[in-house]
Design a protein that fits this description.
It is a single chain. The chain is of the alpha/beta class and about 260 residues long. Helix content is about 45%, strand content about 15%. The protein contains ten helices and ten strands. An eight-stranded parallel β-barrel has the order 1-2-3-4-5-6-7-10, surrounded by five helices. A two-stranded antiparallel sheet has the order 8-9. Strand 1, helix 1 and strand 2 form a beta-alpha-beta unit. Helix 3 runs parallel beside helix 4. It is globular.
Length: about 260
């Protein structure tokens, strides 16, 4: 892959902000032209006035938007079909909201709970990916550190769905690959479906996201090497701390410049 031919989109993550105005202003102050908006605790129905304010800002500032779909208190792979149907209906409402925002990608978690079923997960992803496609959105399945998506066989099967893509979470990759030496090798076979990524070094035992702190750490990262060879062009600084987002963004920019010179 010729890295110079792929436009890199570095995105601000709303994880570090509670209020919408903070998200927009911090992204602007730090020269982000893209935002990944975490919708986990955001209602999919907001006032027209508020929606117009958001969409006007996005348009006026030429901001690209992707969303992270909610992941708490729902599970589209649940073996309890009543709860599964409810969860799918919730995601559908958020996809409609994401469409109004003009979202490019929508990131989804699946199969994190003990009662998850892989067949039900695949059926749900098939249904939701079709709806996302009809909304002009690429639905992206995120790899996780537990549940169905830490399993390479499930990821491979899920990504056979034509309208489903991969969100590669580098921190989750590093955690899983510590106990599964073939995990990164398996991921290499899926990179043709990777269009979105979450960039950070690792996730600790308290689920905190730990940043890359130097250019050397990025250069030495096996998962970043895999990601760099893909056609992925969206890189979210998925860190809980705003200061860490700012410092890591600079390092990631240096990393791309370094690789262009090779």
């Amino acid at each position: 892959v010729c890295q110079k031919a792929i436009m890199k989109t570095l995105a601000f993550s709303s994880l570090s902000c509670k209020y919408l105005d903070d998200i927009l202003s911090l992204a602007k102050e730090n020269y982000y032209k893209a935002i990944e908006w975490d919708l986990n605790f955001i209602p999919p129905t907001i006032s027209k006035k508020r929606l117009d304010y958001i969409t006007d800002y996005i348009h006026n500032e030429s901001i690209q938007i992707s969303v992270h779909l909610p992941y708490s208190y729902i599970e589209i792979a649940h073996s309890d079909l009543e709860f599964q149907e409810y969860s799918v209906s919730v995601i559908k409402e958020y996809l409609k909201f994401a469409s109004k925002l003009g979202s490019i990608h929508a990131i989804i978690h699946v199969g994190a709970c003990e009662n998850s079923n892989d067949t039900i997960a695949l059926e749900s992803l098939e249904e939701l990916s079709r709806m996302a496609f009809n909304c002009g959105i690429k639905l992206c399945l995120e790899n996780s550190i537990y549940g169905l998506t830490e399993n390479g066989a499930f990821l491979r099967e899920a990504l056979r769905i034509s309208n489903l893509f991969l969100c590669l979470d580098t921190g989750h990759c590093n955690v899983v690959s510590q106990n599964n030496t073939s995990y990164l090798q398996m991921l290499q076979t899926l990179m043709n479906k990777c269009v979105h990524s979450h960039i950070y070094k690792t996730e600790d035992e308290k689920y905190n996201h730990i940043p890359f702190n130097s250019l050397d750490e990025l250069i030495d990262s096996k998962v970043m090497s895999i990601l760099l060879k893909s056609n992925c062009n969206w890189f979210t600084m998925e860190l809980d701390n705003y200061i860490n987002q700012v410092s890591q963004k600079t390092i990631v920019e240096d990393f791309f410049i370094y690789n262009q010179k090779l």
